[in-house]
Amino acid sequence: MTDSPLRHDWSLEEIQRLLDQPFNDLLFQAQSAHRAHFDPNAVQASSLISIKTGACSEDCGYCSQSSKYSTELEPEKLLPVKDVVKAANIAKEKGASRFCMGAAWRNPTDKNLDQVIEMVGAVHDLGMETCLTLGMLTDEQAARLKVAGLDYYNHNLDTSPEFYGEVVTTRTYQDRLDTLARIRKQQINICSGGILGLGESRRDRASMLQQLANLPQHPQSVPINMLVQIEGTPLFGADDLDPFEFVRTVAAARLIMPHSHVRLSAGRSNMSDELQALCFLAGANSIFYGERLLTTDNTEADEDRQLFKRLGIRFAETTVNS
Ligand code: SAM
Ligand code: DTB
Ligand code: SF4
Predict the structure, then answer these.
(1) Is 103 touching ligand 3 by the criterion CB < 6 Å?
(2) Which of 106, 123, 174, 239 has the most CB atoms lying inside 10 A of its own CB?
(3) With 50 as the cut, is the pLDDT of residue 321 above it?
(4) Which of 124, 168, 170 has its CA nearest to residue 147?
(5) Is position 279 annotated as part of the catalytic site?
(6) Which domains does the chain have, with CATH numbers?
(7) 87 CA from centroid of ligand 3 (Å)
(8) 25 CA to centre of ligand 2 in angstroms
(9) Residue 312's pLDDT is what?
(10) pTM score, two decimals?
(11) What's the pLDDT at 322?
């Protein structure tokens, strides 16, 4: 397969045409693109920790941590650095190459950031890649994170610009794009993707992918989450998405962002082994690994290791030099 230059000019119709193809044609193309750029049998593993839980002022309709909804979640203050390092050590021993620290903030204060920067340094010193997801950032905050040596910042677009207002009203799509621009300006690697199963249409999924692929640089990591339904949130009880639509979206992400790590993200614990294997065939080459996501359970690490063994998949080494 010849390697064409990365494109940032995808039209919505082009992406829709990719998604509309017969499933086997789409998967064949995606697996071919995957093999042109990656070892098809290596999957990168990131582990997550919630460093500050709940009581968030945003109203994201899927989230257990929004203060607007009454969920069963117990809010927790910012964790001490030593607890975070302990969890990172355990994740590293189990094979994770990246440690992602998430906080339920609309945006961090500068004082919050002082403490988080200590965490970044301590996790980096363990030899792991670091990732943060803290909400919106100012230019100054993004610059501080660069100086601190942060490898990745996660900030998801979540869905299409057209559907966004149905899911979140306390910030705009443009707010998300602005934070991504600030992170990019500092040359911090970007992790940005979305959630499927929010009640969006295939056109919305195409439109979200278009937004991601037409950014000035493709995000280095693209997490594709399946909604984890949380009792008490507006999206609890949403119709389940056809799992093949999930696989199609992974495949289209692989095709239009061929150098990016596409992450099979939240929702794996409700997926069969066969569905996960199809996602790897469609070009997913990263997972969230470890018993917990942020506030909900993930697939057990032992189960993942067994599945990888059955599929002949290896854990990938780090993806950046830091
Ligand atoms: N507060 C920050 C923010 O919103 O950017 C960082 C943490 S937030 C929990 C990180 C991402 O997790 C969200 O953007 C969303 O894509 C994903 N997420 C949250 N709740 C989810 C759920 N119930 N199911 C699937 N993905 C979810
Ligand atoms: C992402 O795209 N998914 C992760 C991570 N980035 C921060 C979070 C998933 C959260 C799932 C629901 C929960 O555990 O609260
Ligand atoms: Fe807050 Fe992030 Fe949850 Fe939205 S997704 S409510 S910003 S923690």
Answers:
(1) no
(2) 123
(3) no
(4) 124
(5) no
(6) 17-315 (3.20.20.70)
(7) 22
(8) 31
(9) 96
(10) 0.94
(11) 32
Best substitution site from 49, 60, 134 to test ligand 1's pocket, by max atoms within 8 Å of Cβ? Answer: 60
| Separation between Cα atoms, residue 253 and residue 234, nearest integer Å | 27
The token duo for 218 is 């493709």
| Bridge pairing between strands 189-191 and 261-264 | unpaired
Task: Quote the CA–CA distance of 195 and 224 in Å, as a whole number.
Answer: 6
- Torsion-angle region of residue 128: left (phi > 0), alpha (psi -120 to 50) or beta? beta
Q: How many residues does the chain have?
A: 322
pLDDT digits (tens, 9 = 90+) for 273-294: 999 999 999 999 999 998 899 9
308: CB partners within 8 A, 6+ apart:
43, 314, 315
| 249/160 Cα distance (integer angstroms) | 13
Bridge partners of 132, per DSSP, are 101, 153
100 carries an active-site annotation: yes
Q: Which ligand 2 atom is nearest residue 154's CA?
A: 6
Average pLDDT on 106-131 reads 94
**Which entry of 171, 263, 268, 279 is annotated as an active-site residue?**
263
The set of protein residues with a Cβ atom below 6 angstroms from ligand 2 is 48, 64, 100, 102, 133, 154, 156, 193, 223, 225, 228, 265-266, 293-296
Q: Judge residue 131's burial from the number of C-beta atoms within 10 Å of its C-beta, 0-12 exposed, 13-18 middle, 19 or more buried.
A: buried
Q: Is the CB of 235 under 6 A from ligand 3?
A: no
